[in-house]
Every structure is written in structure tokens, then in C-alpha cells.
């Protein structure tokens, strides 16, 4: 009986694909290009292998995600057909790489749309945030700056700003994050929409004069690009505006790095029900690298602060609470 051939691991597959690409480059290219594998850390410390296309003097190296091709391999596609597809993608990346040759190619303090702020779980991103200037914004969530370079007719290329990059660009940590947050709001404005049957619907309620939230409704807060939009909650004035629309305090449920679910504080849901909903979503719906937090937050309108539910509950019934608003 013929023994079934054992599948390669992802690392073995990546090494094989890099060898195939280097063979292809030697036969078809006159320029110096070398395919090498690297292990990349993404948000929530999710690691994956990529094939990096190295060229002398090029800072922004094109990288090909191995995960997509490995799935094709696991589903039975041949190494030969995958190699051809990978070579086609590699040639496109070589001919149209992100337009940065050395850090001198990035304007100092003149990023325009290229600089933005992002928020992630602090606990889940120990590796991802190594040597990255950050600012804690609420318990469990931290903010950092990212540079985004738009390639015409192609996807954007993005990376987090590390401490060495920040130093070379002549920023201080607070200055960098302040400017990233300001530019995020300018180029990716906040959007608040009603949330029904798992979908965000209707107009941007933040632009609707005198709108009053319904205690029985859920809302989604994100940005106009609907990607990495959870940062919108931390734009200056946004939480205050939502509290005005809610007529008081509101819950902010971090459904993913892309958005918050907003609920006016009421008796309709208990904190236990909301916590169970969040944890269920993070386990069963949200992809591992998109999880933002397992903590529910409350915006206290009187204090003008976002607090974790435990912090908020701990204040109720205290002398401070009674003096301020109870």
C-alpha cells in the first residue's frame, strides 16, 4: 500500500517557495533580487511567515504573505502551480514596491495621510509593540502611531513607528502620537451609525444636529474607512458628543480593532449580559488578530472620562460619587 506523502509545515513550505523564487529570479531577472523568509508579528502577537524580496538599498521591502499560498497547498494545489502564481505576484511587487528608499524618503513631520493612530490590546501585543512608542488610553488599550504609504492602484503599505524610526524622524513620543491622532481624525473622520442585525446602517449620526439616541438601540462607532476604526472613540470631543446624544453616560463595547458598539446607559442590559456578549463575540466571531479587549468601558459624562466597568462600579455609592452626581 502506497504511503500518503506528509504535508510540509508552514515554515518548510515557505523555505521551499523562497528556493523556487530564487531559482526563477536567477533565470529571468538581471536585477539583484533575493527571496528570504521572515517571521512577522501582527496584531495580538499573531505570527506568520512571509517571503521578503530583498534588493540593495531598498528600505520598504515588498513581502508576500505565505499563509494564502499555504492554504492552497493544504487543499491539494501542486507546488508547481503555486510557484508560478507566487512568481507572478513577486514580479508585480518588484516592479511596484512601496516608494521608500531609506528613511530619508519619508518627509520629517510632513506625513499628510501617511501618519495615523491605531489602538490595540496592551496585554495581547507584547511582541508587536516591542520598541514602539505607545500611550495607554484606557485600562487594557494602548495607542501607537503607524505610517501608511499609498501605492497608486495598489493596496497601501503600512508599518508601526518604532523608537529608532521616531528618533530619525525627529519626534518626541507624545508629539508623535498627538500628531498621528490629529491626522487620523482629519483623514479618517468618525462615524456613528445605528446597528441592527449585525450591520451598521444609515447616515453618520455625529453630523445630525440635535440627534437623541434611543435607549433601546445599539450603535456602531468607527471611521469613514471602516478599518481600524476603534481609534475614533479617542478622537478629541467624540466621547463628549456621544454622551450629549445619549443624554448621559454610555457603554463602549470593544467589538474589534475596527469599531466600538455604543449603548446609552439604561436598565435594558446588565453589565453581566454585556460582558457575556463581548466574550462570546471575541471567542466565536472576531478573528484572533482583530480582538481589541475583553473589557467593557463606560463614559462618565460628569467626570469626562472613559472608565472600565469595574472602575465605574467601584465609584458608585462612594462619598466622591455622592458629592459629584448621585
Which key features would you list for this structure?
single chain; 326 residues; alpha+beta; seven-stranded antiparallel sheet; four-stranded antiparallel sheet; 9 helices; 31% helix; elongated; disordered C terminus
- In one word, what is the shape? elongated
Instruction: Give the total of beta strands.
Output: 14
Give the helix proportion (percent range).
Answer: 25-40%
Strand order in the sheet with the most strands: 9-8-10-12-11-13-14
Low-confidence stretches: 99-113, 317-326
Secondary structure category: alpha+beta
- Total number of domains: 3
Global mean pLDDT: 85
Distance between the termini: 79 Å
How much of the residues is beta strand, in percent? 15-25%
Order of helices and strands: HEEEHHEEEEHHEEEHEEHEEHH
**How many separate helices?**
9
The largest β sheet comes out as:
7 strands, antiparallel
Radius of gyration: 23 Å
What does this structure look like?
The longest helix has 19 residues, at 10-28. Strands 9-8-10-12-11-13-14 form a 7-stranded antiparallel β-sheet, sandwiched between helices. Strands 4, 5, 6 and 7 form a 4-stranded antiparallel β-sheet that branches. A 3-stranded antiparallel β-sheet has the order 1-2-3. The protein folds into 3 domains: 10-95, no CATH class; 110-187, no CATH class; 190-324, no CATH class. It has 9 helices and 14 strands. The chain has 326 residues and is α+β, with helices and mostly antiparallel strands. Pfam families: DUF5688.
Offer a concise description of the structure.
With 326 residues, the protein is α+β, with helices and mostly antiparallel strands. The protein is 31% helix and 25% strand. It folds into three domains: 10-95, no CATH class; 110-187, no CATH class; 190-324, no CATH class.
Amino acid at each position: 500500500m502506497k504511503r500518503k506523502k506528509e504535508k510540509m509545515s508552514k515554515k518548510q513550505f515557505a523555505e521551499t517557495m523562497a528556493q523556487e523564487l530564487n531559482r526563477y529570479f536567477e533565470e529571468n531577472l538581471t536585477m539583484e533580487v533575493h527571496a528570504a523568509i521572515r517571521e512577522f508579528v501582527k496584531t495580538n502577537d499573531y505570527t506568520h511567515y512571509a517571503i521578503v524580496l530583498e534588493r540593495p538599498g531598498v528600505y520598504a521591502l515588498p513581502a508576500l504573505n505565505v499563509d494564502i499560498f499555504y492554504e492552497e497547498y493544504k487543499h491539494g494545489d501542486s507546488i508547481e502551480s503555486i510557484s508560478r502564481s507566487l512568481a507572478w505576484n513577486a514580479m508585480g511587487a518588484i516592479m511596484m514596491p512601496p516608494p521608500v528608499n531609506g528613511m530619508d524618503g519619508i518627509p520629517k513631520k510632513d506625513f499628510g495621510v501617511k501618519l495615523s493612530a491605531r489602538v490595540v490590546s496592551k496585554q495581547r501585543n507584547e511582541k508587536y509593540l516591542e520598541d514602539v512608542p505607545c500611550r495607554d488610553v484606557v485600562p487594557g488599550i494602548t495607542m501607537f502611531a503607524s505610517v501608511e504609504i499609498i501605492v497608486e492602484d495598489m493596496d497601501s503599505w503600512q508599518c508601526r513607528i518604532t523608537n529608532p524610526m521616531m528618533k530619525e524622524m525627529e519626534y518626541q513620543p507624545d508629539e508623535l502620537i498627538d500628531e498621528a491622532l490629529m491626522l487620523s481624525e482629519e483623514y479618517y473622520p468618525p462615524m456613528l451609525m445605528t446597528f441592527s442585525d449585525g450591520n451598521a446602517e444609515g447616515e453618520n449620526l455625529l453630523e445630525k444636529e440635535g440627534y437623541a439616541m434611543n435607549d433601546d438601540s445599539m450603535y456602531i462607532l468607527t471611521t469613514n474607512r471602516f478599518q481600524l476604526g476603534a481609534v475614533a472613540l479617542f478622537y478629541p470631543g467624540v466621547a463628549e458628543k456621544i454622551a450629549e446624544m445619549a443624554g448621559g453616560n454610555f457603554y463602549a463595547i470593544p467589538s474589534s480593532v475596527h469599531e466600538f458598539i455604543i449603548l446609552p446607559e439604561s436598565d435594558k442590559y446588565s453589565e453581566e449580559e454585556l460582558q457575556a456578549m463581548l466574550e462570546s463575540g471575541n471567542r466565536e466571531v472576531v478573528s484572533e488578530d482583530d480582538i481589541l479587549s475583553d473589557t467593557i468601558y463606560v463614559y462618565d459624562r460628569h467626570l469626562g472620562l472613559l472608565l472600565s466597568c469595574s472602575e465605574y462600579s467601584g465609584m458608585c455609592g462612594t462619598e466622591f460619587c455622592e458629592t459629584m452626581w448621585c
